[in-house]
Structure formats: C-alpha cells, structure tokens
C-alpha cells in the first residue's frame, strides 16, 4: 500500500518546512480525501480535516474548482497546473496549484502543492485616480480585466444589479447571473481586447428585480504600453426606447404613438424622403435651442457640427435606403454652437408599396458620457505627467500600511520593480529604527488626517536615505470603509547631516570630540536605570592632569591643545567599551565606569585595574613637535549608590576626593569617604 511506502514521516521530511500548501490525498469516488498535510496547510485548514473529503471541507465553488483539476490530472495521468484568485479582507491573492497523480496497487492518489504568485495591480492603481468621476453619475460603469474578470464597478452599477463589490470582485464576468447573453458580451470584449473602441452596442442584462433591461454599451480599452490590460465599459439604460421602437413597428399608427410615448425620454426629428424636417418634439427644441419654425422645412445641415465626414453620412443613408435601421453616435451642434453628442437611431418608414416615405431620427443625449470619457483620458494623461515627471516619491497605502501604488521616481530611488513593492507592507522599505516610528504613526493617523514624518528608507542595494514624508488620509472609496494614505516624500539627507552635526557639536567637546558635560547630564539617567535593573554599581572618576599649566606655559597653546587631545585618547584606551569618558573643561575629565559589582572589595579591585591601565597609558606618553610627553594624573573616585544617587552629588564627592589627592601627593587616586568633608 502506498501509505506504507509514503508514510507521514517521509511526507514531513519533504514538505514540513515548505511555505507552500502541500496536500496528499486519496481519490474517493468523485471526491478526494485528505491523508497528509504539511505545517502550512494545517495552519490554513487545521488538522481536523485529515480523513475528510474536499466536499466536506470546502465551499461548493472551491470544491468544484479543486476536484475538476484533480480529475483532469488523474484522467491525463500527468501533472496539471492551474491558477485561481482569492479575495480576502479587501486583498487579492493569486495562487498556482500543481497536481501530480499517483497510482499504486489499484488505488489513486494526488499530491497537490499550492503557492502564492504575484498579482499585477497596475490597472487598479489607475482606477484609484479615475474612480471619483463615476461616484455619483447616473451611468453604470464597469472595469473588466483582459481575462474577463470584474475589477471595479461604480455604485450605480452595483445598485442596478444588487451586487456586493467584495463578493463579485475578480469573478469571471460571464459567470455572473445578470448577464443574459454571455457570448454576445464576450464577442464585444474580445474586439476591445484587440485595442478597438466600441460604441452603442446593445446589451440585455437582468436587473435586481429579475427584469430584462436594454443598455447601450461603450467599450474603451485601457492600454499599458501597447498591451490592453483592461476594458472600461459605460452602460446607458435604453429599455424604454427599445420597447417603444418595437411598438412602432407593430402598431398601425405607430408614428404618432411613438412620438407621443418617447417625447419625454428622447429627442425626435421626422423628415421627409429628401431629409427636410417635417416635425420635431419639444425635447429637441429645448435641447438644441432652435425654434420649431427655424427647424421645420430645413435640412439637418443646420445642426451639423462638422465633426463627421461626408462619407460618414453617405454610409448612413446607403444603409437606411435599403430599409435597414442605423444606430450609432453622432455629434450635432446646438444653436449657440455647443457640441451635442447623441446615441442616434435612424429609422426608415414605408408606404403600402414598400417605398420609403419618411425617416425618424431618435436622439438620446450622451454628451455627459462623452465628457466623462474625455475627462477619463485627461486624468490618465495627468496621472502619467505627474508620476513620470516628478522627482517626489509618491506612495499610496491602505490603513494597515500595505502599498497600493508607488510612483516611478519611488521605484527608481529604491531600486525595486513596481511588482516587488505592491502588496507589501511599507515597513519593508524602512530601516529597523524607522519601522517602529511608522507603526506608531499609523495608530494615531486617523485622528490627524494631514501630517509629516521623517523616515529612513533602505534601497534594494542596502543604501539608506532620509526622507521627509507629507501624508494625507482619505476615505477608501472602493471598499466604502477604511482609509488610504497618500504620501509624498522628498530626500533630506543633507538636512539630516547638518542636524546631526549640530547635535554632535551640542553634546561633544569641540577640541577632543569627547562627550561634554551636557551629554553627561542627558545620558546619566539612562545609565543609572540600567544599573538599577541589573543591581550593579557605578563609579564616577574625576581625573585632573598633573602640572598641565606648565605645558601651556613652556610650549604654547597649540601644543597644549594637542596635549589635551592625546590625554583624552589615553583615557579612552584605558576604559571598557561600555564606559563613558567626558571632558569637563581644561585638563579635567570625568569617567563613568558601568557594570561594577556592589561588593565593596571586588568593586575596588575592578576600579584599581582600570586606574592602573590609565597610569600605564599615560606613562607610555606621546610625541608632540618631537617632544615626548608622559604626564601623570590625579583621580578622585565616588561610587553609586554609596556616595550619592544624583549626578551632582557623585561629581561633588569625586571632586572632593580629587582635591584630597592634589593637596597631598598627586599622581594617585582616592576613594571618597565622609571624612573628606
């Protein structure tokens, strides 16, 4: 039996630490039963699924997808791979599963390995900048991927067909219930995928009331480079118009009835055989700005916008003279010269002999749709201008800090491809010290809405740079909840370098570059806190160079300055890495020894060893202007917490001990005691 030759222990050796989801399953009729799961799969489904079938564990839709591909691998007796999308918590994940059939002893098994793969979101990024146009329009708008999946839809569309965006996003459009004729829609989309824009195509859809409705559809391909990545659809409800056109063909007095019925929804012109205007309805008069007297008896040349060629109109009349109905988009002009785009139906009418006696033009105003398409193109153009030509680093994240969009300047500066950043946490491009700063900012960001923050970024090659990030928090329109953070950043390395220089000068001695008294006051509370946590002691050594005045008097201040520098370096060589050497002024230095035990005898031994190293390094001396200097030093010592708990008290105590040394012998050290008062 295969379970003996491929036991759980061997399965774990192969797949236990794999980040992919790995399943070993046995065929059970038309279903498959879980036998072995690796750690990632158990975290996803739990170990309770072992022994159960796919139908018992998965939803119907997922079960059908899984079992159909497993069947395919078994029937073909070869490896099969398939891809699927999952929409979880407003995020899209794309998975690829490899299925390997295994046959043993008359039993059939499959080994399935599922891994997450990158999912291109460029078209969603574009929709982020376009969507505001369609939020309140009466037109239904839909964005469809080049795979036929529904990417976005505006509120009007969702309301028309009672859809939840979170449920239908990334589903195959042709599998949704409101599509009456999938083949017809598929043909239109396939044409648009070739880069062809389509207008005034009739679609029949089923609305939320289970009612068939007719729409004119415009298909606009969205290009990325030379590739169509999605198609933007705009739908107009023309149900009433279509119904009334049908009634016109079946009613003996259809002309008058049709004119009366659609007078409130469309503009109508009735023309004779020579295209002279016989009648117009009130809507046409109101829309075009002409009086009825100005129109009747004249030809349509008076409303010609000169947008279309003579050949365009010749083709229309060639068609209707054959007795056929023409439908398309025509741009007319109003009396004041404004363009008026109309979805136009050109209908011939016949006498009892079958000869054309009249034409009816039915105009449905689509100027708003044309304006929207123009604005859509302008937004795309503006989007490219901004993102491709600005030096600012632009990034958009959701409220969790997951990157939704990055500009070209951003990817170029960081050295990543856009696909490497989209869907990643923004902290992925920050240094460790800035990750915490950004996380704290996210927690309180919703309250501020607008602010700025300085963050250290790390490029793909490891290079770090400071950026001043100005951000704005906006509502996430797509999900109707949550928020998005739009951030514009600029590199500020030069400014930060100057700030660091000023900060260094404020807390360090300008001659020796050692920390100064101000730095000691700032850091001492932290040093004490660490000492208390570890139940350790500190020592404050007040160090004074012996006979330093003679160096200045005999060799001058330049040599004296170099002497102080070398004196400080000798002290630095004598102490440990976690100790602190501070120049207090002149030839006086303070040394903070950390990590000392609190046992008095052992502590004195620790301090004595360090003071011996100080004396040895000073005795080795150094050359200045061909002159050897080997100074000595007097040192006063005070212990924390024995001789004080404040910095001022410890410095005072060690200074008194130093004074005692200077008054007696020099080149020695004394530990503070109350008797020195």
TrEMBL record:
Q: Which SUPFAM superfamilies match?
A: Nucleotide cyclase (SSF55073), PYP-like sensor domain (PAS domain) (SSF55785)
Assigned EC number: 2.7.7.65
CDD domains xrefs: GGDEF, PAS
Pfam annotation, one family: GGDEF
Which domain of life does this protein belong to? Answer: Bacteria
Q: Which InterPro entries match?
A: Biofilm_reg_signaling, GGDEF_dom, Nucleotide_cyclase, PAC, PAS, PAS-assoc_C, PAS-like_dom_sf, PAS_4
Q: In what residue span(s) does the PAS domain sit?
A: 268-303, 379-449
Record's keyword annotation contains Transport: no
* Domain PAC: residue ranges: 326-378
Q: What class of enzyme is it?
A: transferase
What is the organism of origin for this protein?
Answer: Ureibacillus aquaedulcis
Question: What are the UniProt keywords, alphabetically?
Answer: Nucleotidyltransferase, Transferase
One GO MF term: diguanylate cyclase activity
Q: Which residues form the GGDEF domain?
A: 536-674
Protein's recorded name: Diguanylate cyclase
């Amino acid at each position: 039996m295969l379970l003996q030759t491929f036991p759980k222990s061997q399965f774990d050796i192969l797949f236990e630490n794999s980040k992919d989801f790995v399943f070993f399953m046995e065929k059970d009729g038309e279903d498959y039963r879980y036998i072995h799961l690796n750690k990632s799969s158990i975290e996803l489904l739990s170990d309770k699924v072992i022994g159960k079938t796919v139908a018992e564990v998965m939803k119907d839709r997922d079960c059908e997808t899984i079992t159909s591909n497993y069947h395919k691998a078994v029937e073909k007796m070869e490896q099969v791979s398939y891809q699927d999308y999952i929409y979880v918590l407003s995020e899209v994940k794309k998975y690829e599963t490899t299925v390997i059939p295994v046959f043993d002893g008359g039993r059939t098994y499959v080994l399935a390995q599922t891994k997450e793969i990158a999912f291109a979101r460029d078209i969603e990024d574009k929709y982020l900048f376009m969507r505001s146009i369609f939020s309140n329009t009466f037109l239904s708008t839909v964005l469809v991927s080049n795979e036929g999946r529904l990417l976005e839809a505006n509120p009007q569309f969702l309301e028309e067909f009672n859809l939840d965006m979170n449920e239908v996003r990334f589903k195959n459009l042709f599998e949704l219930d409101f599509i009456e004729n999938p083949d017809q829609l598929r043909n239109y989309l396939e044409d648009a995928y070739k880069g062809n824009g389509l207008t005034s195509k009739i679609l029949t859809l089923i609305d939320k009331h289970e009612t068939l409705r007719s729409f004119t559809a415009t298909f606009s391909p969205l290009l990325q480079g030379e590739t169509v990545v999605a198609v933007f659809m705009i739908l107009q409800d023309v149900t009433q118009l279509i119904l009334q056109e049908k009634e016109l063909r079946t009613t003996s007095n259809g002309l008058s009835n049709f004119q009366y019925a659609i007078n409130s929804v469309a503009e109508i012109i009735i023309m004779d055989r020579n295209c002279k205007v016989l009648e117009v309805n009130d809507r046409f008069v109101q829309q075009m700005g002409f009086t009825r007297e100005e129109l009747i008896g004249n030809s349509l040349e008076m409303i010609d916008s000169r947008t279309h060629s003579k050949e365009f109109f010749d083709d229309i009349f060639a068609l209707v003279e054959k007795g056929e109905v023409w439908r398309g988009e025509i741009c007319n002009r109003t009396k004041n010269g404004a363009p008026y785009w109309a979805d136009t139906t050109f209908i011939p009418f016949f006498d009892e002999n079958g000869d054309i006696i009249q034409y009816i033009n039915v105009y449905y105003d689509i100027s708003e749709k044309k304006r929207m398409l123009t604005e859509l193109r302008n937004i795309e153009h503006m989007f490219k201008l901004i993102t491709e030509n600005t030096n600012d680093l632009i990034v958009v994240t959701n409220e969790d800090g997951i990157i939704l969009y990055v500009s070209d300047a951003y990817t170029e500066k960081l050295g990543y491809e856009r696909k490497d950043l989209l869907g990643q946490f923004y902290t992925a491009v920050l240094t460790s010290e800035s990750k915490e700063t950004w996380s704290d900012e996210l927690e309180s960001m919703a309250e501020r809405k607008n602010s700025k923050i300085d963050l250290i970024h790390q490029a793909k090659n490891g290079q770090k740079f400071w950026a001043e990030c100005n951000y704005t928090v906006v509502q996430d329109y797509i999900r109707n909840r949550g928020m998005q953070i739009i951030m514009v950043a600029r590199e500020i390395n030069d400014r930060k370098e100057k700030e660091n220089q000023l900060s260094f000068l404020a807390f360090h001695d300008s001659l020796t570059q050692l920390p100064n008294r101000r730095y000691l006051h700032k850091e001492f509370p932290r040093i004490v806190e660490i000492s208390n946590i570890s139940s350790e002691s500190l020592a404050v050594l007040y160090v004074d160079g012996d006979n330093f005045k003679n160096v200045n008097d005999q060799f001058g201040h330049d040599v004296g300055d170099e002497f102080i520098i070398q004196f400080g370096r000798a002290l630095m060589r004598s102490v440990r890495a976690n100790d602190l050497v501070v120049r207090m002024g002149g030839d006086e230095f303070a040394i903070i020894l950390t990590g000392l035990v609190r046992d008095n005898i052992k502590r004195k031994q620790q301090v004595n060893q360090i003071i011996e190293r100080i004396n040895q390094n000073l005795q080795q001396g150094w050359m200045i202007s061909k002159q050897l200097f080997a100074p000595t030093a007097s040192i006063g010592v005070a212990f924390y917490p024995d001789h004080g708990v404040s910095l001022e008290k410890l410095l005072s105590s060690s200074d008194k001990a130093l004074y005692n040394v200077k008054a007696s012998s020099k080149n020695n050290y004394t530990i503070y005691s109350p008797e020195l008062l």
